[in-house]
Structures are given as C-alpha cells and as structure tokens.
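Example 3.
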Amino acid sequence: MNQTHTSKTAIAGAGLAIALASILSASPVSADSDEYFKPVDHAATKTECTACHMAFPASMLPARSWQAIMDTLPDHFGEDASLEEQTRAEITAYLTGNAAPEKSRIAKSVAKSDQPVLRISDMPWWVRAHDGEVSPKEFENPKVGSRANCVACHSGAEKGYFEDD
Amino acid sequence: MKHLILIKAAAAALVLTVAAAQADPARDAIIATYGKAAAQPLSAARGEAFFMGTHAGGKPDTPSCTSCHSKNLKAAGVTRAGKPIEPMAVSANPKRYTDLAFVEKWLTRNCNSVLGRECDAQEKGDLLTWLSSL
C-alpha cells in the first residue's frame, strides 16, 4: 500500500520534473543515449583500459576527444599509461571509429569547445545525468572513490546499461 | 601430544608448499637479469624502503608505490579510478613477476608516475627481491 503510494508519488514527481524541464530548457533533459552505450568489443582496448578502470564505451566521447586522450598517454589523468606504438594505434583506431557520431547530440554538445573534452565526467550529458542525482560527496565514498568508477553505482555498466540503480 | 606433532607436521608441510609455490624459474630469471645489471647485490630491505617511501619528481597524485598498492602487499590495492589491483606479494599472488614484458611495462609506467623517471636495474631488482619474499 505504502509502496504503491510511493511509486505513484515518484511517477507524479518525475512527470512534473519532465514538464518543468521542457519548459525551462530548450534541449530536453533525457539523454539521447537511452542510457545504453555499446560496451567495448575490441580485445586490445578491453585488455589495456581495464587494467586500471572500466573500459568506457567509445560512444561516450567524440572522436577528437579519444584522439587527444590517446595522444597523451604518458600523462593520462595524472599517470603514465604509455603503450607500445602498435597497440596504441590499434586502440586509437577502435575508439575514434566507434566514437559518438559527429551529428549525435553528445558530439554536438562539445563541438564548439576550443579544446577536446578529455574526461567523460566533464561531458555535458554526463554532468546533466548526475547533477542533482548524485551529491559530489558520494564520489568520495571509499566504495566509489572516483567518478570513473561507474560500476560502483551502475551495476550493469560493463554490459552497457547505465540507467539509475 | 600426538596432536601437537600432527600440527607441527601440517605447519611444516604448509611452509614447504608456500616455498614451492613461490619458486618460479621465470621469476628467478627476471630477478637474475636485474641482478646482473645492478651495481650492488640485490637487497630486499632496500626494495622495501623504496616501495614504502615517498618520492619527489613524479606526478602529484602518486608520490609513492603505496598510493595505489597500499602498505598491505598481501591484499588488493586500488587504482585511482577505483578498480582493485591484484596483490603484489608473491605468496598472495603467485603469478606475479613471471612475465618480463608485463613487469617492464608496469615498472616503466609506474616509476614514471611515482618518480618522474625510469627505475634502474638495481631498483627493479631490489623491489622484486622484496616482493617475492613476502
């Protein structure tokens, strides 16, 4: 009974939020991704990236972001993540080839920025999806530790599902 | 009394098993290679001091090996991105230091991150000697 009441309230709340969002914002709040991102299916990319973090789906960033990341591996977010050239080239080709398409909302949202966005968590869609949803403190929780630790909250992340858990 | 003897025998067997699990020709060869190129005989104590120490010259987020590997080498560490790192102690992770390419790849990266330079054969040999003894 109580549960039904809660879920009805939640639905009403969500409805109101959507209505408000479409009034307040020119672009709809819901992500064009449907919260599914195809997981990495390239062996070398999977092996190398997952040594330190989840293999983030290529379509989370535009090609020029991946290119910039792969060009600066010796200083990869404060660590040396150098790879030998053949592997580096192979992974770069996979990531740029499977990046967010140029005409997608994800790519368009940062198309005009002077510098490529390097952190997925700095992408407008990522910020929008977590803003108000997850308090900044949550990311400091030792069980999470980092905004790069998607699986801490999104249990289906490795399979490409990033809906709210 | 009989009980005690049995326990002692079991303990001895365990020690033997652990020792056997730690010995690995590939690992011995890697350590020997570093040993040959090092100026002084390899030292576990120096390896420990190096690993546990705080270094200058590297990247700000990683001043020590322990920044990610923690000080308990028999337990998992954690990357800055929140992912577990398998234990470094050979007793807890017998696969460690048996693949030269893997060892070199990570020492090159991590020495660069922690010290801002590559480690020399002495440092690598000392480190592996200590980590293999744990």
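The longest helix of chain A spans residues 2-24. Residues 112 and 135 of chain A are 28 Å apart (CA to CA).
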